[in-house]
Amino acid sequence: MTVELPPGQQRLQIEFAPMEMESTEEPQPPSGLDGLRSRVLGIMATIPELADHDIRGLEDVPLGRLRRDATRLHGVCRYHKGRRTAAGGLGPGDVREVALHPQVLEEEWKEYASFLLFHEFLHALGHVHHDRNFRKLEASWPNTEAHKLQETFARHIRAVNWRWSWTCPECGWCCSRSVRAAGRYRCRSCRVPLVDVPAVTA
Fold first, then answer.
1. Which class is domain 32-156?
2. Which of these, 158, 156, 151, 195, lies nearest to 173 by C-alpha position?
3. Binning pLDDT at 50, 70 and 90, where does residue 21 land?
4. Mean pLDDT calculated for residue range 162-181
5. What does the alpha-carbon distance between residue 102 and residue 68 come to, in Å, rounded to a whole number?
6. Measured between alpha carbons, how far is residue 125 from residues 29, 30, 34, 47, 59 in Å?
7. Residue 72 to residues 97, 130, 148, 175, Cα–Cα distance (Å)
8. In the β-sheet with 195-198, what is the strand arrangement from edge to edge?
9. 114-139 mean pLDDT
C-alpha cells in the first residue's frame, strides 16, 4: 500500500502481511489402516490382561495389505528374517509387517477388522503360537461376537474372487473356489470326484 504525503516529503511504502485466519475445520481422525490401529490400540490399553505388554511399541509396527485376491489369509504377522526362531522373547521391534486383507477394511467389516488386527498384534507382542495362553488373551477382546465373523468373511471373499465352482455331477452340490479341484476332492454325500465348472462372467 502506498501513502501519498504532501509535496516535498518522502513517500512511504507500507507493506501489510496477509492476515492468517484460524481454520474452523476440526482435525479429521486418521482413516484406513492408521485409523484402525488407533482404534485397536485404544481398546487394548483398557484390557487388564495386556497391562504388562508393550502396547506402545505397536504404534511403530508397519501395516500393509494382502493381495486382494487372497482367499485363505485374512491377516498375517511377518517377523524379520530369523527372528521368529531366535532365542528369547519377541516383541514389536521384531515384526517386519502386519498385513490385513484389503476387503476387511470396508465399512461393513469394521468390527471384524478390529478383532483381526488385535489378533495379529498379539502375535506382534511375542505370542507366536495359537496356544492356550494366546486364546486366553484373544478372548479378552470386548466384542465377543467379532471372531464369529471369520467364517462369514471367508465366504464373502471366496464369492468375490471365485473362478471355479467345484460341482458334484450326481447331486449338484457346489462351492466357489479360486483354484481347480482337479479331481482331488470328492462329494461327501455321493463320494464321486467334484467337477470344475468355470465361473460365469458378465
1. alpha beta
2. 195
3. low
4. 82
5. 6
6. 25, 23, 18, 14, 12
7. 18, 17, 16, 15
8. 174-177, 164-167, 195-198
9. 95
Beta-bridge partner residues of 77:
98
Other beta carbons within 10 angstroms of residue 58's beta carbon come to 22
- pLDDT 10s digits, 42-70: 999 999 999 999 999 999 999 999 988 77
Domain ranges of the chain: 32-156, 162-198
C-alpha cell at 109: 467389516
Cα separation of 59 and 38, whole Å? 8
pLDDT(153) > 60: yes
Q: What confidence score (pLDDT) does residue 23 get? A: 47
What's the full length of the chain, in residues?
202
